[in-house]
Structure formats: structure tokens, C-alpha cells
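Moderator note: this is an archived Q&A kept for reference. The question asked for a predicted structure of one protein chain; the sequence and the answer are reproduced below.
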Amino acid sequence: VISQFKHIYAGQGLHGVSEDDPACARAASLVPHLQALQAFAFDQVNESHLGDTERQTLFDFMMRLGHTRKALSDAARDEAATLRVEHDRLRPLALAMRRCGLRQHLTLARPLWGWQKVEVNPNCLFYAGGDGVKQALARVCAERGLELSEKSKGWGAGQVRWNQIRESAVGVFDLTVGGRALASVCHALGGALALGVYPVVVIPEEAAGLPFDIDLPPLSLREGEDVAAQLGPAIDDALYGLHPTTGESSVDETARRVLEMSDGEDATTRVLRQRLAGKSGFDPVEAEEMLGSLVSLNGRGKAALLLPVWPGFYPEEGGRRCFHVMPFRESWSDEARDVVRHACKRKAKYRRGDETEEQRVIHSIWEEVCRATHVVVDLTNLNLNVCLELGLAQALGRPTLLVAQAGGTVEALFPESSKLQVKPYTLADGGKSLAAHVAAFLQKAESTRQ
């Protein structure tokens, strides 16, 4: 019976609109997206064990979707009016629903670049890449009433880019570039995934696939065809897309961590502490609002609640865990691994990304970064996986040591990392310089904690 109702509710088109009518082309192209959002809302509201606020939020989505469908039906033969409905109703609704879909992933972080006040714009796109794709993307934005995120400010390239990603509904990541520019794009993608920003990853036609494992297919640009025409549908898919989720939840543990850091004596903090203490099985929508208030009052501008594309994890209390982010297949990889592992001996549990049993590679990397108390990142040759994982670590705010082999990498970093201290090392001395950097890093972190 539920399946039949879902088909009726989510299978409707626009009233009085024919797909074959050229005047209704834009409105008709939005129907599959609207139906997918309706199907999502229907499935979600029929889940068991929903909290009261959670269920009411989902019912509100269903009501807003109905109103939006009517508005699109009324505007269908006027392209400008259709665009206004998209801009003012459908995109804000899709963004709210996408964030709601990630509600069980609520994660406490202390991002490297802080947490300035930034408003998310459902009609804003972040872009990282080359000028060619950017010019085509600008055409897509002009046609669809979108804007590129270029107004955010900060104290350096890293913070500016962080705030640009934060204010955007969708990120476009152009992997057709090379060198430092490509490393920069992958680094930005890591930050976007930690923020739950929906990515469009662009690759050249000849590429075999993505250099890392994420749960979304890339856009392979076909040579000889108009780039804007290829980007347009991918942007629509992203604006109205929903992240796949696994059903895992980090809300209860996040609530506990937020309560631990909420030491203020203001009235709001005291009331919320009393209300939340000892509870579990939180309504995630209600929890985000209450925990957000606590973080705002007690985070001192450094702590933040994220809705990443995966559920959050945390370091074990009283334990020390060092995650080593580095290439696995270079001729020097095993030697560098052994040096860092030995430097961690009796000081921290050593982990490297290829030592996990988790089959979902990027998910396992995320979990290891989350669980780490220390992260050592080897930027030698700017490996793309390493750059993405650095973006994850910086978004979470884990204590991070950047190292690179002497010989050019330190002097050739991408702008977002060029102002950060990178410790040079060589393996020609048996790894003594690398071991010394790691030992000092672990000692400094221990002194800071004490």
C-alpha cells in the first residue's frame, strides 16, 4: 500500500504541462528532479523511530514540494518565471532536504580556518580548476540564474577558499588541469566533502576514472562538444541531488562531545546542558539546533558542527593515534612508513590508510582521520589522494604535521598550503630528519594537551 501511495505521490508531473511543448522545456526538465525529491521525502517520513521534530520537518518538506510543483506548473510556459521558481523555491528546498538527508552525520569539528559567520546560498556554486571550464561554467550560471562564489574574504588563500566552499550549494572540481593546480583542486574537494557540499567532478575524456574513490560518478568531458552544454545537466543533477547514506549515526557521540566542551555559565548553556545530559537516541533535527546553540556560545569561534557526506567519528579518550597520510606505491613509501611508525612507538598507535579492513576506501580514510589525535601528511610530489585527505584533516581541525622530501615540493606548494609550515626531510640520512619531526610533533601535541 505504501509503495502504491509513493507511486501516486512521487510520480506526478506538472499539471497541464506537456514534455513535447518547447515553451515548457525548462520546466519539463525539472520534473525528474522534483519527483526524486518527493520520493525521498516520502521514504523518509515513513521510516520508523523518527523524532517529533524530525517527522514534522519531513512533513513540511512534502508540503513545500507540493506548493513548488504548483508554482512550476503555473510558470511552465514562461522561462523567466520558471527560473524564478527555481531560484526562490526549488533550489532552497533541495538544499534544505540534502542537509536533512545528512542529519545523522552531525559532527563536531575545529576547522583550521575557524568558523566565521557565512550564509549558505542555494544559488551559489564553488569552482576550483582552470580558466577553460570556468568560462563554460560562467555561461551555465548566466543561463540558470546562478552565481560563482568569489566574494568571500579571509586572512589568506586557505581561509578565503574555505569560506567560498561553505557558502556554496554545489562545488565544481575541474580535474582536467595539471601540476599544482590539480593538487589545489583535490585539496578543495576534501574540504567540500567534509562540509557535505555536493560535488561535480570533471575529468578529461581520456582519463580512466577518478584518482580516488568517492561515491559519485565523474563528468567525463567529451572532446569536440560544447563544454557548457555538458556542464548544464550535471549542475542540475547536483543542485537537486541527494547524498547516498549508510544509516550510521554520529549524533549521540557528537552530543556528548559538545556537552564536554560547553563550560559556559550563561543561562542558555546551563539550561541546554541540563536538558541534554545523559540522553541518547536524539532527534537529529532537534539535536542540531540545540547543539548548534551550545557550540555558538562555547566554541569561541573555532568549533563548528558539520554535516559531512559520512558520519563522524572521534579519537578514543585517553588514547593517542597517529594517522599517516602518504602515497602507498612510491619507491620510498615503505621506508617512510617504517620511519614514522618507529617514531610513534610507545607514543601513539600508528595507522596508514592501506592498513584498514574497510572496503570503502575513502570512507575508511575519513574514519581514520576522524579517529586520529595526530595526522602526519607527506606532501612529497603532491599526490592527489594526499591533497584530498589533507583537506579532510584541516576541515576537522586535527593536529597536523606537514612534511615533504627536500628537492622542490616545499617550494612548489599550491596557494592554500603555501603559508603553512612544511618540514623538509630526506631518507638519505636513514630517515633521522623525518623521525625528529614526528617526535617533536608528538611531544608538542602532548605538551599542549597537558
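Archived answer notes: The chain has three domains: 2-101, 105-309, 321-449.
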